[in-house]
Amino acid sequence: MATFFFCGIGGIGMSAIALYLKKTGHIVLGSDRSFDQGSNQQMRQRLENAGIVLFSQNGTSVSPYIDTFVVSTAVEDTIPDVKKAKELGLTIKTRAEVLGSILDAHFGIAIAGTSGKTTVTAMVGHILFTLKKHPIMINGGISENTYNNEPKSNLILDGDDFCVIEADESDGSIQRYTPDIAAVTNITLDHKTLDETRPLFKDFLIRTRKGIVLNMDDPESKKLKINRPNIITHSASGNTKATLYATDIQQTPKGVHFKLNGMETFLPMIGLHNVENALTAVGVCMHLNISIAESMEALQSFLGTERRMTLAGTAGNITVFDDYAHNPAKIAAALSALKPLTKRIFAIYQPHGFGPLRLMKDTLITTLNDLLDDQIEWLMLPVFYSGGTVKKDISSVDIVMPLQAKGKRAIVLKNKKEALSYIQKRTCPGDCVIVMGARDPSLSDFARQIVQALGEK
User: Fold this and answer.
1) pLDDT above 80: residue 335
2) Which residue, 179, 229, 365, 419, shows the most beta carbons closer than 10 Å to its own?
3) Cα 341 to chain centroid, rounded
């Protein structure tokens, strides 16, 4: 038994590791700026209910009795807890180092990619749990399913035959992972340039010990030119050269009907991107000698992950969704999934940081210029800022102005209160509202507030 202190424990990736260590017999302590600010309280409750002791992030709770002090890349050296840990000479490890150690101790399965990896990780964990394969799953999103009568969580702990993790490339931590089975869902612009991410993914796949799953439809994945045995490929565009290929895709409000290698099947999730996610998960499980039919049968009870096209509610025949989409590819996937199913879409987007928005600016404008039509109204909130040192040299106005110049229906709203009023006045029965963005834990509450406001019309 060891004592771990997590600085930034409220983060979705940090919390899953903390829960795993607590449930495997260790003492786990932690702090988080969001808790001190009174936000992210649902996560705080999850951690406290598990027996994790939380403190204010002021340095007073960091003691010499801590064996390992864990930090994420979002934590700055100026934070009092970090300064105290360094003064005491504590062993300091990154989130990726701790997660990598857990992965190395098991038959490891790592899911990577700039879009879809959270859902695929949850799908693989669900398939393995449903088929009684006794998995560990450590994820970057809360599963809508519950396992072993536990509350909804970003952790499955059902044994230790397999360990499935979400491998994040945004901070370069993917370099720490050497899995037995690896999947890359796709490679698109997100936190880093493509020139930076390509070598990260290529090295990750080269390090993989046994089997790989790749998206044959993704042009960037093809550029990796991974030439080794035991690669399973998939295509949602019907490319029969792939190991797994989907054809005859028909989208409905309840999910997607399609043929998988000629077999009629159904996925109870909306969107073509979720077909791609399912094919990735099925491919991973094929490496574990699980048949296509077994995997798809298990996915019939899969409910998804929080903030991945989560239904926040319906009021006045207006449907409100909550989604984590924050880069151009994810935004395009979310809006494309909704377009066949609704009359009009009011898309509310909050950029998740000044740095990411600066990086994505041109691609985001191009993507939106192609996507936006008379069916979609684009509503941008100010850039999310949670504190710390950052260069604030870009704003939502820099995205909206070029779109307006092209005649697109796009505006910037001052804050969430103004957005509530706008939605309440402009929407009609049959419309759809989607809230998109990352990092801000209050966005889900905001989506529910929209439902309430619509109910008061």
Assistant:
1) yes
2) 179
3) 23
